């Protein structure tokens, strides 16, 4: 594997080959792991894009990393299922380069479900002026909530990503644009911010196969990386505060006029806006070492009046993860391993509106409970056993449909 990584690094370097010590080819053991944090300071969700393990060969200016996720599952919905299933969820590659002392580049390329989907999730150049002022441009990841940025599989004890982060919000939501970010350290406190202007959503928010207001539908539009559907910029801003040995609190907002309201000067519709607000937090309880990670989001969309009532103008949802270390040390013959127990609670209300005719509440809710066991032979690798119980009620409020799924998953950085 080290030899393969070395060859990949050499191929990525191109013109830099002349600078490489030729003995590296005979000694791939000289590959070194680049520290995720060179400053020794508390990390925030803001830092997730660079806070990953990379491998660098000798003096090569390019570092390489990535992670893999695969799982087995067997699930039933109201007693009907598809039996045993193996899935290759994703392989993600990272490539970073220190172009100069204060100019950095990083890209993240993801291959999902084999190669059914290939996405560039991040590809940006950072210009550092001071810790509090940095400029980023390229394909940026919109910082709404925390999971959208800090989503790497090996960091989580659960096989599935949270439904509120992947279906209420568009997980790994990225767009072409630019903005500012920075951090300020004061003793045990860290303050951070991000603010970006990017391309964004389109009419598929309310015109999609899901038959509901569905923000992730805009991810299917590859043209958002080369043109903006209506010329209106998506604004995303986040502030975060972290206290050392306590935890982090983040507040974020994302908003835009999403519809194509004009074409060559001809007015097609009024300007319809969507707005998303999110709060995220994480902490570790003293004494018990129980880690708590949560996120909650509210969505507001201006839906056309002639749309059916299942297209909600208001949505909300979130998740809470509890992870309790059971044993640290030698586990299954691996030194410094960790055995964890976990529990995830999830809820999404897809439509908080009311029927105009009766005034009754519209249904369309999903909630889930996911107990978990996980084994980490090292901090970079996790093996997960989950039992997912999920209930979904349609917009008419009929009795909920129940799903139960056993999942065994593997995720590892490499």
Layout of secondary structure:
Layout: H1 2-13, E1 31-34, E2 54-57, E3 62-77, E4 80-100, E5 103-112, E6 117-130, E7 133-141, H2 163-168, E8 174-186, E9 189-198, E10 234-243, E11 247-257, E12 262-263, E13 266-267, E14 273-284, E15 291-301, E16 314-331, E17 334-349, E18 365-378, E19 381-393, E20 401-413
Antiparallel strand pairs: 1-2, 2-3, 3-4, 3-20, 4-5, 5-6, 6-7, 7-8, 8-9, 9-10, 10-11, 11-14, 12-13, 14-15, 15-16, 16-17, 17-18, 18-19, 19-20
Structure description:
The protein has helices at residues 2-13, 163-168, and strands spanning 31-34, 54-57, 62-77, 80-100, 103-112, 117-130, 133-141, 174-186, 189-198, 234-243, 247-257, 262-263, 266-267, 273-284, 291-301, 314-331, 334-349, 365-378, 381-393, 401-413. The protein has one domain: Porin, CATH 2.40.160.10. It is 4% helix and 54% strand. A hairpin with a 4-residue loop joins β5 and β6 (117-130). By secondary structure, it is mainly beta. The strands form 2 sheets. A 16-stranded antiparallel beta barrel has the order 3-4-5-6-7-8-9-10-11-14-15-16-17-18-19-20. The protein is built from 2 helices and 20 strands. The chain starts with a helix and ends with a strand.
Short description:
The protein has 414 residues and is mainly beta. The chain has helices spanning 2-13, 163-168, and strands at residues 31-34, 54-57, 62-77, 80-100, 103-112, 117-130, 133-141, 174-186, 189-198, 234-243, 247-257, 262-263, 266-267, 273-284, 291-301, 314-331, 334-349, 365-378, 381-393, 401-413. The termini are close together.
């Amino acid at each position: 594997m080290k030899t393969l990584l070395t060859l990949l690094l050499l191929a990525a370097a191109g013109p830099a080959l002349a600078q490489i010590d030729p003995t590296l080819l005979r000694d791939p053991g000289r590959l070194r792991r680049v520290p995720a944090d060179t400053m020794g300071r508390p990390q925030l969700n803001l830092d997730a894009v660079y806070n990953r393990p990379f491998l660098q060969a000798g003096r090569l200016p390019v570092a390489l990393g990535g992670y893999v996720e695969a799982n087995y599952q067997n699930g039933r919905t109201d007693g009907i299922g598809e039996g045993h299933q193996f899935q290759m969820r994703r392989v993600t590659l990272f490539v970073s380069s220190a172009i100069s002392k204060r100019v950095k580049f990083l890209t993240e390329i993801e291959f999902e479900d084999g190669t059914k989907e290939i996405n560039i999730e991040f590809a940006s150049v950072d210009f550092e002026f001071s810790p509090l002022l940095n400029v980023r441009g390229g394909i940026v990841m919109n910082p709404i909530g925390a999971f959208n940025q800090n989503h790497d599989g090996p960091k989580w004890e659960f096989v599935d990503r949270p439904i509120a982060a992947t279906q209420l919000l568009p997980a790994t939501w990225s767009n072409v644009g630019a903005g500012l970010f920075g951090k300020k350290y004061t003793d045990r406190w860290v303050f951070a911010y991000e603010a970006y202007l990017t391309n964004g959503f389109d009419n598929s928010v309310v015109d999609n196969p899901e038959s509901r207001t569905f923000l992730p539908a805009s991810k299917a539009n590859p043209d958002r990386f080369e043109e903006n559907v209506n010329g209106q910029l998506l604004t995303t801003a986040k502030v975060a505060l972290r206290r050392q040995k306590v935890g982090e609190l983040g507040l974020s907002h994302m908003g835009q006029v999403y519809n194509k309201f004009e074409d060559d000067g001809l007015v097609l519709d009024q300007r319809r806006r969507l707005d998303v607000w999110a709060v995220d937090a994480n902490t570790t309880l003293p004494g018990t070492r129980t880690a708590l990670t949560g996120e909650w989001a509210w969505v507001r969309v201006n839906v056309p009046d002639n749309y059916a009532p299942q297209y909600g103008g208001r949505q909300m949802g979130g998740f809470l993860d509890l992870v309790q270390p059971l044993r640290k040390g030698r586990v299954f013959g691996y030194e410094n391993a960790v055995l964890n127990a976990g529990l995830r609670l999830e809820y999404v209300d897809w439509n908080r509106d009311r029927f105009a005719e009766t005034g009754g509440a519209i249904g369309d809710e999903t909630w889930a409970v996911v107990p978990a066991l996980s084994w980490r032979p090292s901090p970079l690798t996790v093996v997960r056993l989950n039992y997912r119980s999920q209930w979904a009620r349609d917009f008419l409020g009929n009795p909920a449909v129940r799903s139960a799924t056993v999942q065994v998953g593997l995720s590892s950085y490499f």
